[in-house]
Specification:
Layout lengths: L3 E6 L3 H14 L3 E7 H9 L6 E7 L1 H10 L9 E9 L2 E7 L1 H4 L6 H20 L1
Antiparallel strand pairs: 1-5, 2-3, 3-4, 4-5
């Protein structure tokens, strides 16, 4: 089973970032964190790296449901979405597959919640 959902677009990085944030918002996700990996690697270890941002996306209602079902599931939250420069004018967007990441937890209710989140993330990726 793949651990992510992705799509490569023939669109500039900055435009894809804007579209991704808007698509997440339309599906009820907020962006809690934004990690600029390119900038961090340059500042911390002097490495040049292509544009690469990790968005920590969260659907508050679904996160609350998951936390009620399994109080340690916060270890796996928020849902990470990566936007990266794939070269040649292309940008890749990849999101964690929450069903795959929750396989380690034996809780049928949590699996159903993860399936809801996966459906939302699939719509985000498909809509880009």
């Amino acid at each position: 089973m793949a651990y992510y959902i992705n799509r490569i677009l023939p669109v500039a990085f900055d435009k894809v970032m804007t579209r991704t944030k808007a698509a997440l918002k339309a599906e009820g996700f907020g962006v809690l964190t934004e990690i600029n990996v390119q900038k961090t690697l340059k500042e911390k270890i002097g490495v040049d790296f292509p544009k690469y941002v990790i968005l920590g996306a969260c659907s508050p209602a679904l996160a609350h449901e998951a936390l009620l079902l399994e109080n340690k599931v916060g270890i796996m939250l928020p849902c990470n979405v990566v936007v990266r420069d794939a070269g040649n004018g292309q940008t890749e967007v990849a999101a964690i597959d929450p069903v795959a990441s929750m396989q380690a937890i034996d809780n049928p209710g949590l699996k159903r919640a993860a399936e809801q989140v996966r459906s939302k993330l699939e719509r985000v990726i498909a809509g880009l």
